[in-house]
What we know:
The protein is α+β, with helices and mostly antiparallel strands. It is built from five helices and five strands. Helix 1 (about 75-100) runs parallel beside helix 5 and helix 3 (about 120-130) crosses helix 4.
Amino acid sequence: xxxxxxxxxxxxxxxxxxNDQESLVPGKEAVIYQDHFAPPADMTIQNCWNYKLVGRSxxxxxxxxxxxxxxxxxxxxxxxxxxxxxxxxxxxxxKLMNDFDFEPQIxxxxxxxxxxxxxxxxxxxxxxxxxxxxxxxxxSFVIAEYQRFSKHLLNTDIWRRYYLExxxxxxxxxxxAVLRDEIGARNFEMxxx
Length: 193
């Protein structure tokens, strides 16, 4: 009965033997897997890393180092543009979070309380005391802040989706250079879509 040593993080075969008597000691992040299925005919000790345990089957995986085609410049540029866009959007959102008084979850909870017409409003009451305003003014303040915050957050998402679509449809390095310049120059905090 074959025994396989499986690397747990990757599910790849590290070692195998068809000798039932051979004692195997797995490493720190490995386990021994024993089953009735025979190893694939072309699997050897030298290439067993190319096999992955999926369910109860060994599937040959293409090694990243032996990839037959390299990504094109356009593909690499798309990945770089997505990373640039993500960094720009995240920076705008971080600045947005710093510009407002509350965390996003608190905005939502406070807004729900402020628009509620029944029940107590402990948050608005405490905030009104702190700001030395009446409860009606406080509710108006909370609603206005939530709407302003939401508008900016949704605007960054619209820009993100807009540029992701443009990045995916870009087919030349020239188009991507224009996109890179646009994304780099865009003020995602202030520019409305």
